[in-house]
Amino acid sequence: MNDNGQLIIEAADDLLRVTINRPEKRNALSLNLLDDIGAAFHSHRSKPLKCALLTGAGDKAFAAGGDLKELDALRSKAEARAMSSRVHEVLDEIRYFPVPVIGAMNGVALGGGAELAMACDIRIGSAHADLGLIQSQLAVTTAWGGGIDLINAVGNSAALAILCAGQRLTAEEAQCLRLYEAVCPAGDDFGAFTDDFVARYLNKSINVLRGYKSTAAARRRQLHEELTDTARTAFVTAWVDDDHWDAAANALKKK
Question: Would you say 95 and 115 are in contact if contact means Cβ atoms under 8 Å apart?
């Protein structure tokens, strides 16, 4: 096990388990923490794994979003574009990891946390694990490819409605859209629920798991290659607009 304080990395048998470990901060995502997540997946690409699991510590949040104070310091178009590209590349380590990556939503996944969740191939949730690509509430669009992942998952029309509204989906709603493959019943142990879910993958042939993942990843990569420039330009335009700065200032005051 590797524990750097903010991230716990465990690789045993056929499973890589990565746990965001900032429960006191609702597992908020600093840029350095995101880099560490990407590095953890990158360093295990050549390992003989069948599956990977990404989750958060505690029972409140998988990841409540990006670090608003850190991101608020990025004021120019160049800074916004560089940040978007940097974190998109981090999440690509998850999107194109050679085996299925399961996101275990132990709590809410909001904003950038929802983009991290959407980078996973498959998601499961606790009963209170709301999923919210709520960036429009801050007068900005998704920065790290999460909007593209949502389009890939639910289709153009449904994704557009969710993204424009900044809709926060309950775990039940997310399951109905197949954004969550399973939801742990309220009161049940989420850790045991997660272990049972992962077990159905670990008992499969490594060639089957890697073969299906390679096909799915190729399709996803194609969509990102088609849409990333458009999505990034839209993000940068929104990021430097006064509407975004006003909304961000109000959010920081509330925090």
Answer: no
Kindly tell me if the per-residue pLDDT of 213 is higher than 80.
Answer: yes
The domain containing residue 62 runs over which residues? 2-190
Distance CA 164, CA 191 (A): 34
CB 160 within 8 A of CB 132: no
In degrees to the nearest 10, what's the CA dihedral of 16, 17, 22, 27?
90
Paired tokens of 193? 């629920």
CATH of the domain at 165: 3.90.226.10
Beta strands across the sheet bearing 168-169? 61-63, 108-110, 131-132, 168-169
Q: How many domains does the chain have?
A: 1
**Does some domain include residue 58?**
yes
List, for residues 116-172, the tens digit of each pLDDT value.
999 999 999 999 999 999 999 999 999 999 999 999 999 999 999 999 999 999 999
Asked whether residue 243 is domain-assigned, the answer is no
Angle formed by the axes of helices 206-239 and 146-154, nearest 10°: 130
Please give the pLDDT value at position 242: 93
* Residue 55 covered by a domain: yes
76: number of Cβ within 10 Å? 11
